[in-house]
């Protein structure tokens, strides 16, 4: 069963088609799995083979083109009619001779679209260089236009139903983070903490369960806290370790991410001092959030605080997020950073993650929130502090 | 700390360079995260931004090029010298103006490689059409050659140390599958079973913990068993449900996948009959496995059995697998299917997954194994049968 009403899917398609018209494209080929889900409802771990959603300007419903064995999954999860579910044969899987995009090219030729302006997501994860090459050779009369992020931009303002899922994800991330902060202790193995986090993320609450987050728990320890994308090992926590935990709750593919840092005593004053700066900077940035404000102004509020303490941060302060699939829960559109002119409107949703990674340690303390009519609403509810044990 | 000896990494690079010479390429750009790990040891959930390993024919060590904040992770996990770790600035992240492949192009020009034959992985997951476009425009004098699967083919025969990790992964997948078969029951929520599976996969045993598998537990239920890549929901299991569970144990990025099917009584004779055919067919195929045999012969042994019962299977019977990252644990090289001429040699490793998906139900019962001197060794140890409760 699709998660949203047909009306909501059609509204999303309408907005997408408006953007298509602005770019002068008649055909849009969507390969980003989050965008495929957003416009059709399709959900499944099938993005490891090539698949596409075809949006035609003059047809109300898109076409799902995917692997034959996934067509039943499309029938169950997408709102579109069965006649719009177009499976390609299994002999296109990991084959030298036949590529799924050859099939897509033939489909478009059959639809008399071989000579049109066709939008493709050139920098989307699963749209490989080979996909472009095969489309270009199969459709020599077409003009290809880069439509990367076209649908991502439509996704940036959430509906009430989407916000409801993100609030639930906020409940789950709070629960999972508390489990993490409670379980990390001297002598405990990192993998045992990771296992408990997963259990809390997925089992959820008696009212609703959790979906798999697009990123696994990131939990670097000790010197590795200077490397934000490290996962876990079998090692045991030791006295004096700092541990960064970044993870998300996920409900029906909607995320609320959160990061906290914990120190096992004895604590280095470097870490506690840096944590104070991070919290003060983030609170100043959050206070700047309201409709009408530009994202660069939010970043500026943060920067003013940390510069007063002699710190700098080269990487961005946060990013728009929500619906997604591995390998990322970010939407790749608006970033909380210098130069980003995006003007905040209600129901934009962000992960503000003022991670500071110095040479041999780092601190991350973050919040996920939506923009409200006059400020912001946090999704999670975990003490905004350095945890010390 | 790198997982393997420097000697093993250098051997892998030597074999890679032999393949490069056969293709007449001087420079190989690796973006598949499993291939990056295989040739350097680099491990981190950073493949959601562009990153590359550059192999130059005349230099012993490759260069890691990645995001600035991941350079510390590379220093910790890769065997290469610090001078071979080349970070690109944060302003290249999700920017319209600067793409990480612009940086790679400049790097190659500085190395006087701008006019060479350069191998790229055109159909690797994270090598987007935009990556190719930016490299081509940054290096107008270079000739680009498709080197997709070049390193994957080097990976196909495992070392003793790799096999040791896959045996450990086999212990974990057996444990996780038993947890799944024990927990699924009428009235239980799917998400609670998924949570227990995760806990077993990650917590592991007292001797070793688990890493995150490249694919989440797939566990379609009821009519959805006809759709193999469905995950889980909050729904409760009901009498008469069939449930397919496909999951992997993972140790240090090495996988052993496994599938089993369970039916909650009352049982449909359609399912029990199909399960018997699947087991008999798989056993016939396994009996055909030994060095010197071609993969198509293994598939033929399976096909003979199922055709006798009036069944057909369009999709392949299995695939080579081992080291990997999301979204797939398969290696995309050898497949157990008609026409695959790959000749088996010891320490090739496969997931044989004779999934049969009919219109409204399906059965999957699988095994992971390595080829031995005279047959095969299974990685998992779970009864090869339809589970009935």
From TrEMBL, chains A, B:
Q: Which InterPro entries match?
A: Creatin/AminoP/Spt16_N (IPR029149), Creatinase/aminopeptidase-like (IPR036005), Creatinase_N (IPR000587), Pept_M24 (IPR000994), Peptidase_M24B (IPR050659)
The residue ranges of the Creatinase N-terminal domain are 12-157
Q: What residue stretches are annotated with the Peptidase M24 domain? A: 165-373
Database matches in Pfam families: Creatinase_N (PF01321), Peptidase_M24 (PF00557)
Instruction: Tell me which domain of life the UniProt entry assigns to the organism this sequence originates from.
Output: Bacteria
- Could you identify this protein by its name? M24 family metallopeptidase
């Amino acid at each position: 069963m699709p998660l949203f009403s047909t009306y909501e899917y059609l509204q999303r398609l309408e907005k997408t088609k408006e953007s298509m018209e602005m770019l002068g494209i008649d055909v849009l080929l969507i390969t980003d799995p989050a965008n495929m889900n957003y416009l059709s409802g399709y959900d499944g771990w099938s993005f490891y083979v090539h698949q596409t959603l075809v949006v035609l300007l003059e047809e109300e419903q898109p076409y799902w083109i995917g692997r034959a064995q996934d067509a039943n999954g499309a029938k169950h999860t997408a709102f579109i009619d069965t006649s719009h579910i177009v499976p390609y044969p299994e002999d296109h899987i990991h084959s030298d001779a036949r590529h799924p995009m050859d099939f897509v090219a033939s489909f478009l030729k059959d639809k008399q679209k071989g000579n049109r302006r066709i939008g493709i997501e050139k920098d989307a994860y699963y749209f490989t260089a080979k996909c472009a090459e095969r489309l270009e050779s199969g459709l020599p009369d077409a003009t290809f236009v880069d439509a990367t992020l076209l649908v991502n931009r439509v996704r940036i303002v959430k509906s009430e139903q989407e916000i409801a899922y993100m609030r639930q994800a906020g409940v789950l991330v709070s629960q999972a983070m508390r489990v993490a902060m409670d379980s990390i202790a001297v002598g405990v193995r990192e993998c045992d903490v990771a296992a408990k986090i997963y259990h809390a993320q997925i089992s959820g609450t008696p009212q609703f369960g959790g979906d798999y987050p697009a990123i696994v728990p990131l939990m670097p320890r000790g010197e590795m806290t200077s490397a934000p994308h490290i996962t876990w090992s079998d090692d045991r926590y030791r006295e004096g370790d700092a541990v960064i935990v970044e993870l998300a709750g996920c409900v029906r593919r909607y995320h609320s991410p959160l990061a906290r840092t914990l120190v096992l005593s004895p604590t280095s004053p470097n870490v506690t001092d840096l944590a104070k700066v991070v919290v003060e900077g983030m609170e100043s940035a959050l206070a700047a959030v309201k409709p009408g404000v530009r994202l660069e102004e939010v970043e500026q509020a943060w920067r003013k605080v940390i510069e007063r303490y002699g710190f700098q941060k080269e990487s961005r302060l946060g990013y728009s997020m929500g619906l997604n699939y591995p390998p990322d829960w970010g939407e790749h559109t608006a970033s909380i950073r210098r130069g980003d002119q995006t003007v905040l409107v209600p129901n934009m949703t962000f992960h503000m993650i003022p991670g500071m990674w110095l040479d041999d340690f780092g601190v991350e303390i973050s919040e996920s929130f939506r923009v409200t009519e006059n400020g912001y609403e946090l999704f999670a509810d975990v003490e905004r502090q350095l945890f010390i044990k």
